[in-house]
Amino acid sequence: MSKLVGKWKFESSEGWEEYMKGLDVGFALRKIGGMTKPQEEISIDGDFWQLDILSTFKNIHLKFKLGVAFEEHTVDGRTVQSTFTVEDDKLVHVQRGKPADSIITRELENDGTLKVTFKVVGKEEATCIRKFKRIES
C-alpha cells in the first residue's frame, strides 16, 4: 500500500452532485464542494496512517490505524464512525452514520492515477469518481 503514499493533485470529478444528494447535503454546500479542487496527502508512520484532504474550503486531517473505528467530522458536517482497511490493494474507508453509510475507496490505476470512488450504501446512483495525479517532490 506504500504506492498510495504521497501528495496528490486533483484532476477530475464525475458524480459529485449525485453523491452529495445521496447524503442529503444542502444545495449551497453541494455547490461549494463541487467547485473545490482538493489535494490529498497520504502517509504512513509505523502502524498509523494519515490522510490529509486540503482545499480552499476546508481541510480534513485523519490519523488512524487500519481496522480501528474512530469518530470523524466530515467536510459536509456529519459525525460518523469511520474505519479504514486495506482490501485487494485498495484503501477502503467506511463511514457509518446518518443519513446513510458511505464507502470511499482509494486505488492506484495502471497509469499511476489515484482513483477515489465515493458510494452511498443502498443508493447506487449516488456514486462519484474523483481522480488525482501524483505531485512529484
Automatic annotation (TrEMBL):
SUPFAM superfamilies for this protein: Lipocalins
A single GO molecular function term of this UniProt record: lipid binding
Keyword Aminoacyl-tRNA synthetase: no
Membrane-crossing segments per the record: none
Keyword Metal-binding: no
Domain Lipocalin/cytosolic fatty-acid binding: 5-134
Keywords tagged on the record: Lipid-binding
CDD domains: FABP
InterPro entries per UniProt: Calycin (IPR012674), Fatty_acid-bd (IPR000463), ILBP (IPR031259), Lipocln_cytosolic_FA-bd_dom (IPR000566)
Family: Belongs to the calycin superfamily. Fatty-acid binding protein (FABP) family.
Protein name: Fatty acid-binding protein, liver
Origin species: Lingula anatina
Native organism taxonomy: Eukaryota, Metazoa, Spiralia, Lophotrochozoa, Brachiopoda
